[in-house]
Design a protein that fits this description.
The chain is mainly β and 558 residues long. Helix content is 4%, strand content 39%. The strands form nine sheets. It has an eight-stranded antiparallel β-sheet with strand order 1-16-17-20-11-10-9-8. A five-stranded antiparallel β-sheet has the order 2-3-4-5-6, with no helix packed on it. Strands 30, 32, 34, 37 and 39 form a five-stranded antiparallel β-sheet that branches.
Length: 558
């Protein structure tokens, strides 16, 4: 076995709610050794030193609130490259205080308008954290737990320990065999995970995410979650991440999120944001803290008009908070709890495509119950009668060529199928053959071949192209049978950062429509009509950073 293979055996984990629940009995949050030191704290002059009464001792700088040490069962896990764990890349000189009340120790950090907190509970191998972003005066996009090199070596898509070259910016790398790695390649949407971390089989280190009520981007947002290099690793709680972001920054208290050590298994399901309750924090005086009694719930008895082939998610969002929950597959019932009082836009998503919106008000201490939501047939573009269709209208490129791989690899990765190649309607492979992404400098002008009946060729038709995001204002322009050329459509609002090369297709869904006159079609019913799709834009650079767009679905309406 080669050295990298040995490292691969020490697998890393991206923990879903289901995985966490399955291991709850093994890795409870109170796992403590019989000889653990007593719960309490000391002051070593530079740091507050907290002993949890279990197997964890951690230190917080009295100067700037950095987490400077994480010792679990006698092993130091904190730090790489001389850096600590902290908000953003570290705060400046801060006011740092500590208090102990019974079985809870709280460390409070104040830096300008930002407030940050660490809490320890007696007998637990966890550190609970909250961060209150009051405004933009302090940059706070993340909390990063920096982990020493060599403790959790792996070759996951977001680990670039074994890479040999840089292929884009300073954050996308390639191994000797061409396989790509980047901190961006987590493969996960926010809705997909409860905890992010690594395990050796006997020790696990995770960050259990918060409910992200003060983050942005919604349930399907994708961002960096962890990374690893030869220098060490990082685990993230995202507070506000700008890469391919579609929403403005929200402010207020986000948390708790939890740094959790285990005996190698996934964190207990009791720590997940859906199950974690912290009544012990109600009296700690955290800035912006709202107890369970000050929150409300929205419940719906069902959703009709669903396409049962797809999962449905219900989201709540306003300028101050966001929440979501899954609709039950059998009838569409849903329940979203722990929401701050206020009026929200409620959105029903078919997979990732918004198909219904309404307004709902959340009241503290109460449940707002909604009658059955009926999704109008016209709200789902899949219900429109089509002569042919590539993909389906889901708000994602799912099913298209390379779609899954692009959430954890660069487009240049040798595992990707060719980005070029024409598509023939009726072949049975038209969806799998059509590339999920189009770029001006890579595969612009891809051709779709299709036949029409005499009746179909005698009429004008509408062609629709759905996209999920765009880079450098890339948008589709079409040419039919080399005789009809559409106008260049106006670019919709999309994020201005990289997207297609950093594992994310999740931008703003948009549908382009083109009215193709009957004169454009071939009258010979045995001949193939041609549809060429070009990427139009005056921006972008070259190759995979030329203007581009991600495809949801393409169809020709009857």
């Amino acid at each position: 076995m080669t050295e990298p293979q040995k490292h691969l055996a020490r697998r890393s984990l991206l923990v879903s709610a289901a995985a966490a629940a399955a291991t709850a009995a093994v890795a409870g949050p109170l796992a403590a050794s019989a000889d653990a030191a007593a719960f309490g704290y000391t002051d070593d002059g530079s740091n507050y030193v907290v002993t949890t009464g279990a197997d964890l001792v951690f230190k917080v700088s009295k100067t700037n609130g950095d987490l400077t040490s994480l010792v679990y069962k006698g092993t130091e896990y904190q730090g790489y490259g001389g850096k600590n764990s902290h908000i953003e890349s570290g705060l400046g000189t801060s006011t740092v205080t500590i208090t102990q009340s019974g079985s809870t120790i709280l460390i409070s950090v104040a830096y300008g308008t930002l407030k940050h907190y660490y809490a320890a509970r007696s007998g637990e191998n966890n550190v609970y954290l909250w961060t209150n972003k009051a405004d933009t005066s302090v940059s706070a996009t993340r909390y990063i737990v920096r982990v020493k090199a060599g403790l959790f070596l792996n070759d996951e898509p977001d680990s670039y320990t074994y890479t040999t070259s840089t292929i884009e910016a300073a954050d996308v790398f390639a191994k000797a065999d061409g396989q790509t790695r980047s901190k961006h390649y987590s493969k996960l949407r926010v809705i997909d995970y409860d905890a992010i971390g690594w395990t050796t089989g006997s020790v696990g280190l995770y960050v259990v995410r918060s409910n992200h009520e003060k983050a942005s981007g919604g349930p399907f947002y994708r961002s960096l979650l962890r990374h690893q290099s030869a220098d060490g690793g990082g685990l993230y709680e995202i507070l506000y991440y700008g890469e391919n972001q579609t929403e403005a920054q929200r402010f207020g208290l986000q948390g708790p999120y939890v740094i959790a050590f285990t005996d190698g298994a996934a964190p207990s399901s009791s720590l997940s944001h859906a199950n974690l309750t912290t009544p012990w924090a109600d009296g700690l005086g955290l800035s912006g803290y709202v107890a369970a009694s000050g929150r409300g719930r929205v419940a719906g008895v069902g959703i009709t008009g669903r396409d049962t082939a797809y999962p449905y998610t219900v989201g709540l969002a306003n300028s101050t908070a966001q929440y979501w929950g899954s609709a039950r597959a059998s009838d569409g019932w849903f329940s979203i709890g722990g929401a701050l009082p206020g009026t929200y836009t409620l959105t029903v998503f078919k997979s990732e495509l918004a198909v219904y919106t309404t307004s709902v008000t959340v009241t503290a201490g109460a449940t707002t119950t909604l009658n059955t939501i009926a999704v109008p047939s016209t709200n789902d573009p899949s219900n429109a009668s089509a002569i042919w269709r590539i993909g389906d209208w889901t708000g994602s490129p799912g099913g298209l060529k390379n779609a899954d791989l692009m959430t954890y690899a660069h487009p240049s990765d040798p595992r990707a199928a060719s980005w070029t190649g024409n598509v023939v309607i009726g072949s049975g492979t038209e969806t799998a053959s059509f590339p999920c992404y189009l770029w001006k400098d890579v595969n612009s002008g891809i051709t779709v071949y299709f036949k029409l009946t005499a009746a179909q060729a005698a009429a004008a038709h509408t062609l629709r192209i759905g996209v999920t995001t765009a880079y450098a204002n890339g948008r589709p322009q079409i040419v039919v049978n080399d005789t009809y050329t559409s106008a260049v459509p106006s670019p919709p609002t999309q994020p201005s950062t990289r997207s297609l090369t950093v594992g994310s297709y999740r931008g703003n869904n948009n549908t382009f429509t083109y009215s193709v006159p009957a004169s454009a079609w071939l009258t010979d019913t045995s001949a193939y009509n041609t549809l060429k799709i070009y990427v139009a834009s005056g921006s972008g650079t070259t190759s995979y950073l030329s203007a581009g767009t991600a495809i949801d679905a393409i169809d020709l309406l009857a």
